[in-house]
Amino acid sequence: MEVKRDILWRVYLCFLGIVLLSVAVLGRALYIQNAEGSYWRSKSDSLHTRIINLDADRGTIYSADGNMLSTSIPFFNIYIDFGAEGLQEKKGKRFRDNLDSLSISLAQLFQDRSSQEYRQLLQTGFRKKDRYFQLKKGISFQEYKKLRDFPLVRQGRNKSGFIAEVRSRRLNPYGLLANRTIGLARENAQNVGLERTYDSLLKGESGKKLVRFISGGVAVPVEGYEVEPENGKDLVTTIDVNIQDIAENALLKMMIENEAEHGTCIVMEVATGKVKAIANLGKKSAGEYWEDLNYAIRASEPGSTFKLATLLAVLEDNKAHIGTHVNLENGVWKVNGRTVFDSERHKRTDVTIQQAFELSSNVGMAKLAINYYAGNPMQYISHLRRLRLHEGSGIDLVGETRPIVKTPKSKTWSATSLPWMSFGYEVLVSPLQTLMLYNAVANNGKMMKPYLVQEIRQGAEVVRTHEPEVMVEKICSDATLRQLKTCLEGVVVNGTAKSLSTPYYGIAGKTGTALVANGNHGYSDHIYQSSFAGYFPADKPEYSCIVVIRNKPHAVKYYGGAVAGPVFREIADKLFAMLSQKLPAATAMGPGIDSSAFFYAGESGEVRKVFEVLKVPYRDSAVDKRWVTVASTTDHKTELAALKVTKKEMPALKGMGLKDALYILEDLKVKVIVKGRGKVVRQSIEPGSPVPVNSRVEIELN
């Protein structure tokens, strides 16, 4: 018994020792975690390094006339590290001493909370020792610069805990104008338009930086271990802002009037293939229109504008000439078990091919296809291929849909495929492809590749230039070309587009009215696609243009000449007026004197830095103001003067660069229309005037 008791006593003693040791270990662990946790975490932070990426500035997209179409504007997300040593030392004395003045400053700057609400918000974050407390998201550069001088914040990150996360957002100063073509650069979604096509050039190359983390998780750069980012390249497009504005507004006006579903309009420079305007409008659920999809490069059944390709094939193969007669059968003809109808009813029978084209007769084109190509459809299709209608346009835009031109080997080929293709059905091509054909006729048979970007720049240096490219040297013989031009001009003088005729200049073109399917409803909803393609002036073509509009079901007005034609005519009238105003080279005025050569405006810190680097002496009367003017005084000295900038009235923008002007106007919540390039020389709202929210402000640069 004594031995047993002795053994049990020893076991109990060991057990008790283990329990006491466990309690001690657990207690020490809790003490380290709660009482000394921040100290040891900061020690851990200081023991490791990391390579972080340095974002490059994304390039800017310009119009052909130097207007900024898409650029990046910085914004800032503000966080607070309430666990920072500077805030927590001496039981938070620094935080408490600055709390009231900081709350008042925040309330005055952002005007979204009272100073008392900001005080409570900051106290809550401080009590929780939140290491990444979100104070404000998406503040502008001007707001951030003011914030840096606030109480507590100006003491630096280690003492204040304030963290600024720099981001950038893409800004399209012209809003709707060519929005889908220019595109969007988005973080959480796929880019579109030029932003996507040229993304690798625009985004530049990210840099690398080695940082070491010190107490409080603060990252400190390691000397000698940094690769600077290479900023993105700028794009200079072929788009002319004035022509784009004309096209967009003309299209929008007709879309609203006819309650159309969607539409597109393209204006191309005949000699070069430069796309000067490309408008795409779709109807949203609420009824307004927006650039939702790029309809210009989406293939669909073109309708009667395709008849030009059929006419070209017949003439080029010497099957007939435009004076050859064809029977239109009063606009109704049965072929291979199906009936062909002319969309505009008539009682015509014996007419010439030219008259059939001017009347836009489906029966006339179908008869030409059957009479001359029924035995050898590939002879007809070979012409379509030489016109590159079976291939994409090759334009520098991602997202072009694939065209479809059937052959007898296609699974869907039938006995009626050939006649229906002759007037634009059972074939899919995009409006841009159709325009390329009409542009080639206007360009004396030379088919040009359409393009949107003419220069790629790195700063002031031109890195690459895109020259006009010929896709087909000659689409047909000169004899065929003369007959095609005669027919296209005849459509406007005598045919379905005679309402577009004007005594001031000639128009050549073709109307199109196609019945299109509406999903599972088929053709029962009577949805028509109205189109007009052509060029002007007819005798010396400068521009080609196509307008395609998909109308609502059972629209009262749907013929191409009545819907798409007026849009074409409005664009042509305004562009012809612009062409008429061009002075001959001999009388053109030379460059004038730059009236703002000795007057500039901008952000004071940047201006002073430039003067210091260049060692330019100056007189500074701006004190501590953020925005200044730089002017030449009467004694030929350079002087900095304060520029008044508030959120309640329009500031004087003269002499500013575009980015500085946009920074300021962004705070005023106005819509900015920009013209020209260089420095601001004119503004639509006078300095000192009140500025209502969502006002339209035009600034002109020179």
UniProtKB/TrEMBL annotation:
Gene Ontology molecular function terms on file: carboxypeptidase activity; penicillin binding; transferase activity
Keyword match ATP-binding: no
Residue spans crossing the bilayer: 7-31
InterPro entries given in the database record: Beta-lactam/transpept (IPR050515), Beta-lactam/transpept-like (IPR012338), PASTA_dom (IPR005543), PBP_dimer (IPR005311), PBP_dimer_sf (IPR036138), PCN-bd_Tpept (IPR001460)
Location in or out of the cell: Membrane
One cellular component (GO) term of this entry: plasma membrane
A Pfam family: PASTA
Gene3D superfamilies: 3.30.450.330, DD-peptidase/beta-lactamase superfamily, Penicillin-binding protein 2a (Domain 2)
Keywords (A to Z) from UniProt: Carboxypeptidase, Hydrolase, Membrane, Protease, Transferase, Transmembrane, Transmembrane helix
Chief location of this protein within or outside the cell: membrane
GO biological process: cell wall organization
Protein name: Peptidoglycan glycosyltransferase
Lineage: Bacteria, Pseudomonadati, Bacteroidota, Chitinophagia, Chitinophagales
